[in-house]
Amino acid sequence: MVSGLLAVLLFLVLATSAQAQATPPDLPTYEGWLREAAAAAQRNDRIGFEQAANRLVETQQVRLNDGTLLPVDNAWLRPLLADAERSMPQAAEQLGALLDALAQPPPSAPDDAEQRLRDLLSRPPFSEEQDSSLLGQILDWLWAFLERLLSPFGQVGEGPRAAFGWLIGVLAVLLVLGVLLYWLFSMRRTLAREARSEEHDPEAGLTSQTAMQQAGSVAEGGDYRTAVRFLYLSALLWLDEKGLLRYDRALTNREYLERLRDNAGLRAQLLPIVETFDQVWYGHVTLDADGFAAYRRQVEGLRRGKGR
Predict the structure, then answer these.
(1) What does the alpha-carbon distance between residue 252 and residue 247 come to, in Å, rounded to a whole number?
(2) Given CB 3.0 to 4.6 Å as the disulfide criterion, which of 116, 130, 182, 291 pairs with 124?
């Protein structure tokens, strides 16, 4: 009787486990599992890494906010688990790349964007019939308008009536020229406003030194998360200024590391800087004054040229 009761309990436990595994996690839960596995691999926690990685391998689908089931495949972790002791650095890098990809904003272009573009280009002024420039089209329209406007005055004859007609014509030309000048002035003012808006971009025109100074100013106000971002930008800008790594906003953090694969020393020094930034900026890990000071020492060590 006891053995039968144990069998029933075992069956219920296995059924409950199977049902739990059959329920796909939502996207925030799945991201949390990825971060847990990446963090364990970074600190060489073999037990924690194996537990988190096995859970990712078993996950076949992720449930989005609208209920859509997104298929996922983490089978690439299986060969790394076979030799976890030596494979954890590689796993940490690949898991970090996945987290970088998930942090990217979704595409904003509609599904029919390509068709819309083709329709737009098939109409003037982009169609083949309209081969003149925009300025040329404006001037052609202006001359045709003036020709139509002044043509009646060429038929008014002589005398006071003719003089009055030409006066009206000259005033009309001046009015059109005034409108055109106003339009050109408005366009110039718009361009100047756009240029000024670019100047307000906190990252526009930064150098490694100004980014370091900005980090210190922000940290004094207690915003260590933003200060860490400026320190990270300072490191990337310093590498760009020294010709060691081109700074490009379009690159992910892991792509920066990949471009340093031929410089093992510099890559090893940049790696903890990237990982700490990922944890603070994307993982929302809280950083205090001591943690920020330690991160600043890492960046200053890089700027002194160690690992080159």
Answers:
(1) 11
(2) 130
HSE of 227 in the Cβ direction (CA atoms, 13 Å)?
Answer: 21
13-25 pLDDT tens trace: 444 444 444 688 8
Neighbours of 254 (CB within 10 A): 19
E-strand stretches of the chain? 61-63, 69-71
| Stated length of the chain | 308
Q: Please, which residues have CB within 8 angstroms of residue 56's CB and are 6 or more apart in sequence? A: 33, 34, 37, 74, 77
**Which residues, in sequence order, are CB contacts of 136 under 8 Å at separation 6+?**
none
**Which sign does the torsion angle of CA 281, 283, 289, 292 carry?**
negative
**What is the rounded CA–CA span in Å between residue 260 and residue 267?**
5
Is 77:91 a contact under the CB 8 Å cutoff? yes
pTM: 0.38
